[in-house]
């Protein structure tokens, strides 16, 4: 079934949606994006995603799209039109098209940002399928991304390559490693659990400030779990009691293997399971 998508003020069948070949997100990856999950037809952590979008735009000196104030309504309308019960809303803002290719940013008075949104239906998102049942395997890969990973840009070639490296190695994802320490996953934040303590890298420009990360850490602290925000090594991960990843599209997935080494007894751990449960319960209460 053809989706209805949103492009610069219009709701269109996906096959009729068009942007210029000169759009800067196409030519320069000069764009930022957000992915918001939908459960029971409602948006999770919407305010967090909107706030991070605003920050990404500010950091890149990119104009807010004219429809910025209508984003909640646009998200909701797409969810409704496409009858999304469980799924995702993808949003992308680019610096627009100056009608030619030029490295220099176009004049924002003249060239307006491009705003695109579309939905992805993901039945079974709450359950999480095999990843939640059996856990996922990760391999470590060098983190050679740029130095502003806190900005959610559409430069996703290396993360895509990482997913392929994982696939070729018979794994599901990667832990990116810089200076001997894990930064994050290819499209998620990374955590280990040791002696009941949840350890995840501190916020900086080296990682994306995950919206799910913020919520999960808040819920963990509220549940009196101990949290330490610091970098950890692959070896520490291999010797941890358990590990997990978080993102808007996975919520919490347990990690059961790092570079071929099984964690604990090689099955999903209780802390990850508990955090997934709390995250889903609490986030659904504030879903809009
Ligand atoms: N790190 C990276 C590199 C990501 O791409 C993502 C997901 N977009 C995350 C972390 C998790 O962020 P969030 O919880 O906001 O989805």
Model description:
- By secondary structure, this protein is of the alpha+beta class.
- The protein is globular, with a radius of gyration of 19 Å.
- The longest helix has 17 residues.
- Helix 6 packs across helix 8.
- It is 28% helix and 29% strand.
- The two termini are 26 Å apart.
- It has two domains: 118 residues, D-amino Acid Aminotransferase, Chain A, domain 1, CATH 3.30.470.10; 158 residues, D-amino Acid Aminotransferase, subunit A, domain 2 (D-amino Acid Aminotransferase, Chain A, domain 2, Alpha-Beta Barrel), CATH 3.20.10.
- The structure holds 4'-deoxy-4'-aminopyridoxal-5'-phosphate.
- 4'-deoxy-4'-aminopyridoxal-5'-phosphate (PMP) binds next to helix 6 and strand 13.
Comma- or semicolon-separated keywords:
288 residues, alpha+beta, D-amino Acid Aminotransferase, Chain A, domain 1, D-amino Acid Aminotransferase, Chain A, domain 2, 2 domains, 6-stranded antiparallel beta sheet, 8 helices, binds 4'-deoxy-4'-aminopyridoxal-5'-phosphate
Overall shape: it is globular
Low-pLDDT windows of residues: none
Mean pLDDT: 97
How would a crystallographer describe the biggest sheet?
Answer: 9 strands, mixed
CATH topology of the largest domain: D-amino Acid Aminotransferase, Chain A, domain 2
Q: Give the SSE order as H and E letters.
A: EEHEEHHEEHEHEEEEHEHEEEH
Number of domains: 2
The residue fraction in helices comes out at 25-40%
CATH superfamily of the largest domain: D-amino Acid Aminotransferase, subunit A, domain 2
Instruction: Note the gap between the termini.
Output: 26 Å
Count of helical regions = 8
Evaluate the radius of gyration: 19 Å
CATH class of the largest domain: Alpha Beta
What is the total tally of β strands? 15
Query: What is the CATH architecture descriptor of the largest domain?
Result: Alpha-Beta Barrel
Structural class: alpha+beta
The amount of beta strand, in percent, is 25-35%
| Ligands bound to this protein structure | 4'-deoxy-4'-aminopyridoxal-5'-phosphate
């Amino acid at each position: 079934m053809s989706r209805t998508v949103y492009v610069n003020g219009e709701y269109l069948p996906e096959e009729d949606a068009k942007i210029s070949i000169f759009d800067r997100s196409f030519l320069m990856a000069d764009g930022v994006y957000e992915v918001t999950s939908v459960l029971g037809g409602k948006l999770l952590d919407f305010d967090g995603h909107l706030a991070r979008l605003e920050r990404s735009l500010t950091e890149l000196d990119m104009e807010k799209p004219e429809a910025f104030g209508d984003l909640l309504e646009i998200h909701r309308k797409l969810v409704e039109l496409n009858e999304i019960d469980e799924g995702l809303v993808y949003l992308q803002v680019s610096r627009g098209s100056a009608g030619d290719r030029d490295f220099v940013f176009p004049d924002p008075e003249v060239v307006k940002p491009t705003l695109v949104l579309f939905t992805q239906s993901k039945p079974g998102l709450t359950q999480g399928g095999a990843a939640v049942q059996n856990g996922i395997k990760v391999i470590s890969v060098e983190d050679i991304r740029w130095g502003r990973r806190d900005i959610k840009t559409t430069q996703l070639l290396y993360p895509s390559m990482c997913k392929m490296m994982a696939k070729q190695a018979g794994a599901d994802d990667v832990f990116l490693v810089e200076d001997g320490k894990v930064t994050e996953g290819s499209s998620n934040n990374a955590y280990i659990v040791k002696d009941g303590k949840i350890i995840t890298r501190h916020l900086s420009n080296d990682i994306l400030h995950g919206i799910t990360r913020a919520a999960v850490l808040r819920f963990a602290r509220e549940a009196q779990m101990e949290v330490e925000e610091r970098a950890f090594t692959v070896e520490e991960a291999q010797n941890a009691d358990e590990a997990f990843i978080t993102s808007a599209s996975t919520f919490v997935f347990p990690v059961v293997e790092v570079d071929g080494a099984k964690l604990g007894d090689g099955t999903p751990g209780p802390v990850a399971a508990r955090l997934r449960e709390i995250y889903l319960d609490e986030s659904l209460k504030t879903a809009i």
